[in-house]
Amino acid sequence: MEVLSDADVQARVTPEMARAAMRAAIVAAYEGRLNAPPRTVVELGDRRLTLTCGSVDGAWYGYRSYTAPGSTDEDQLVVVHDATTGAVTALAVGAALGPRRVGAIGAVALDALAPARPTAVAVLGTGRQAWHQLWALPERFRSLPVRAYSPTEAHRQDFAARAAVELGLRVRPAASVREAVDDANIVVVATSSGTPVLGPGDIDAGAYVTTLGPKQVGRSEIRPDLVRDAALVVTDSPAQLRSYDPPHVLAG
Q: Is the same domain home to 21 and 139?
């Protein structure tokens, strides 16, 4: 059995590896081999334990557990079992694996669905999830200009400088949402805002948008009419989408 810390994950999980793993999972879902029910929340006094479970037929099964929904800093546990023997084959403890997984899902979706002629990438939000969307960015998009917006000037300045140095991207801070999305046909919305920061009037027709932050009716980082006006709407888990309470803005 292998036990991975955050340091192990940071040293060994590359964007290429993460994208390949998420692409394999999405193909397995398409082929009916991936089982991924909605997450389960268990009330434990003043704590809530959240469990996400999954399996690929004949290969592995396992779960992830965490106690602070929405947190990217609190330790999580990922447990993987061998599907044949039931033996635990690997554990990952920490907070590093989750955002890399989410970033890679975004990268696989972008690779499949991006506009034929991408112009620029706008990132609304400068937290860990926003960072890992850029970390996992497929190679063919890495030469595009990137504009990063946060309502806090220091955050957007620091995010842009770090992405330029650590990821080798051409990132500049944007002072407003409008400045960030202007002429960008790839838009990543990764905020903690419960009120919409993006609507259909903010982007050009044909733009690709991914949303990672709050997205429930009454508390969403995107306006519902952005979904209504979309030509194509995609989610990695229809079952999870249907399970939200209050409902997900995409429900129905």
A: no
